[in-house]
Amino acid sequence: MKLNVVMPIVGEVLKSPVVIGTMIVVLLYLNFVFFVAHYKKQPPKPRKPKVAAPVAATPAESMSDESEADDAEI
Known about the structure:
Blueprint: H1 3-14, H2 17-38, H3 59-73
């Protein structure tokens, strides 16, 4: 076969919707395969432990504590 006979046939085959759709599906599949093959999960960031702030005693509580302490000594 001569090249001038083959080129129109190849052109019609490449313009076919079935061939175009198949190529799109194959390219998407290969893209997904390479993504999974090269995927590296990032290590989780270390969390800082939350430190609870000390609760300051209100003056009313501290007075009642002192009076209870005085009663206990008697």
